[in-house]
Amino acid sequence: MDIGIDLGTANTLVYLKDEGIKVREPSVVAVKTGTTEVVAVGDEAKRMLGRTPDTISAIRPLRDGVIADFEITEAMLKHFIRKARTKEKGKGTKLIRASRIRVVVAVPSGITEVEKRAVKDSAKQAGADEVYLIEEPMAAAIGVGLPIQDASGNMIVDIGGGTTEVAVISLSGIVQSRSLRVGGDKLDESIIAYMKRKYNLMIGERTAEMVKIKIGSATVVDQESTMDVKGRDLVDGLPKTIEVSSKEIREAMAEPLAAILGSIKEALERCPPELAADLVDRGIMLAGGGALLGGLDVWLTEQTGVPTHLSGDPLIAVVEGTGRVLSEVSYIKKMTSGGV
């Protein structure tokens, strides 16, 4: 049985060969406080974030694209792999049996050998017999259908929850890459910090994410909008509602967006002239959940002078790439780093 996994800071997606995407859930695990006893995983656990009693802790076991809590990640992977192997049968479900499970996991291009080993060990403990790692920008490029095998430059920018991966790819290899530990989470954190600084209002991660999705944008939009944000007043400790505008949220996210732009510019500056010429025609392809930020493609085109395009479904680009790699054993060996 062949399984592709996009083990993301914000979401984990699991692809089963010949069946497509079987799991698409938040990378959140709820455990009994002080233990590793799992109470809930994925969607159910995310609903608990910021709302748990003292006896339960909702944990995000990945931070900045890498494993922060080994045991919890292992429990989460075990749950998701089992869910991917479960098939509807009549009124119940049936676990698909497999003599051997081969897994391809997408990881940030900038992670260390120790971090790679942690990912492989987690997948092995979760039931995988063979584990291969593929760099996220390569998986995203394959997933969105870029002609990576051609002798021409293709640029992919994959903005996930914990990292932003920037890569220029040619002849099935990464020519130039940047891995930045800034992504959707940092945008949320910057909104939380702004509300605290400007309005003395404490808001949670889920509220910040909702504000970003509803009125967040990277550039001036035709119709500026506002929304009510609820939180706790830091002065008197009471619940409070504040109306904020899309302009304010844009201002709040300016710093992490500037960091992402800096990485893209750096990769473009270091790109060989022949490949840089290809990028003027082909442009930059955006993938990952962060790519859905309003007007990001327009803003990047303005800032770099290189046409920027949003892929069809940015959220599934990486896992689709792992799925395509699974279709050929030789492709797995060529595109990934060793199996264990």
What features would you describe in this structure?
The protein contains twelve helices and 20 strands. It has 340 residues and is α+β, with helices and mostly antiparallel strands. The protein folds into three domains: 2-137 and 318-335, Nucleotidyltransferase, domain 5 (2-Layer Sandwich); 146-182 and 255-314, Nucleotidyltransferase, domain 5, CATH 3.30.420; 184-254, Actin, Chain A, domain 4 (Alpha-Beta Complex). Strands 3-2-1-11-12 form a five-stranded mixed sheet, sandwiched between helices. The protein has a five-stranded mixed sheet with strand order 15-14-13-19-20, with helices on both faces. Strands 5-4-6 form a three-stranded antiparallel sheet. Helix 5 (184-199) packs across helix 6. The model has no long low-confidence stretch (mean pLDDT 88).
Which secondary structure elements does this structure contain, and how are they paired or packed?
Elements lengths: L1 E6 L3 E6 L3 E7 L2 E4 L5 E4 L1 H4 L9 E4 L2 E2 L2 E2 L2 H15 L1 E4 L2 E4 L6 E6 L5 H13 L4 E6 H8 L10 E6 L4 E7 L2 E8 L3 H16 L1 E2 L2 H11 L10 E8 L5 E7 H7 L1 H16 L3 H10 L1 E4 L8 H9 L3 E3 L6 H10 L2 H7 L5
Parallel strand pairs: 1-11, 11-12, 13-19, 19-20
Antiparallel strand pairs: 1-2, 2-3, 4-5, 4-6, 7-8, 9-10, 13-14, 14-15, 16-17, 17-18
Helix pairs in contact: 2-3, 4-11, 5-6
